[in-house]
Design goal:
Layout: H1 3-10, H2 13-24, H3 29-36, H4 40-52, E1 56-59, E2 62-65, H5 67-88, H6 91-94, H7 102-105, E3 115-117, H8 129-135, E4 140-145, H9 153-161, E5 165-171, H10 172-190, E6 195-200, E7 208-212, E8 216-219, E9 231-234, H11 237-251, E10 255-256, H12 260-267
Parallel strand pairs: 4-5, 5-6
Antiparallel strand pairs: 1-2, 3-9, 4-7, 6-10, 7-8, 8-9
Length: about 280
């Protein structure tokens, strides 16, 4: 991008906002005035600057982006989303993003509408009734967990009985502990028609991920590998789609627990106590 074009896009907040607005769809002058809350006197010079730079054209009484303007819009929108995400909360700066593959890191701005939910330290070891209640009416539920959360098992079973689609991915040590304490429940869950159970190797740099038709939540380890039970939550479609892609990434690298024999292998593990093969490939 030429230096003068960078100046055109970023030197004026009004021009940047206008570019982002027109990236959604063509707008009339009246719509621009209302949506940006500006007067014609204030916005006309910015329209002229974008038009002179071949980023905007006027057609059929509306202003719209040129092909080059559309390409720049995509890059500017992505940058603005990331900056909005980082300015809103330090969570993403203070936590380890190593569990997120590069192609989703490049779109982490999709999570700009997420809100931080902090757990009361007094209730860290108590069931998270807020999450349980929120996801209890989901039509589908996808869960990745590196933590032993027995309080969620009744929710998974309940949704499975209601024919909601439930897919769980546990790390190896979590699944072994659940089977040690709730073997019968897991065997019954794995046998349901609308449920799936997967396992992956330990050491994943992702604490928890929940995705449903109601919303998504994600928890990360901090930069020192610690977990404080805080999580980011969002119900916006863009964030839910991003979270679903992250879940599918891990699912494609996990091993399905789809038979009694596989469960038996965890109940009576081999000598080395680990999975027979490494299932979690490189993130990038």
């Amino acid at each position: 991008m030429q230096p003068e074009l960078i100046d055109v896009v970023f030197r004026s907040l009004k021009r940047r906002d206008l570019l982002l607005l027109l990236g959604e769809e063509p707008r009339t002058m009246e719509e621009i005035k209302i949506l940006l809350d500006v007067s014609p006197t204030a916005i006309l010079p910015q329209i002229k600057r974008l038009t002179d730079s071949n980023l905007v054209i006027q057609k059929n009484g509306s202003y719209e982006l040129t092909d080059m303007g559309s390409q720049i819009f995509k890059k500017v929108q992505s940058l603005v989303n990331v900056l909005t995400l980082l300015e809103k909360d330090n969570y993403w700066i203070e936590h380890d993003l190593g569990g997120i593959p590069q192609y989703l890191l490049e779109r982490i701005g999709d999570l700009k509408d997420c809100n931080l939910v902090k757990t009361d330290p007094i209730q860290i070891f108590e069931p998270n009734t807020e999450l349980l209640n929120f996801f209890s009416s989901s039509r589908y539920l996808m869960v990745f967990s590196s933590f032993y959360r027995p309080e969620f098992l009744p929710l998974y079973s309940k949704l499975g009985r209601l024919d909601s689609e439930v897919t769980l991915i546990f790390t190896e040590s979590v699944l072994e502990k659940i089977l040690h304490n709730y073997e019968r429940k897991i065997r019954k869950f794995a046998s349901m028609q609308s449920t799936e159970l997967f396992v992956c190797n330990d050491g994943v740099k992702l604490a928890e991920l929940f995705v449903s038709d109601r919303g998504m939540m994600i928890s990360l380890f901090d930069s020192n590998g610690r977990f404080y039970h805080d999580y980011m939550y969002c119900s916006e479609p863009q964030a839910m789609h991003w979270a679903r892609e992250l879940f599918e990434f891990y699912k494609s690298r996990a091993w399905q627990v789809d038979s009694e024999t596989v469960i038996d292998n965890f109940v009576c593990p081999s000598e080395n106590g680990t999975l027979s093969k490494s299932m979690l490939f490189s993130l990038h």
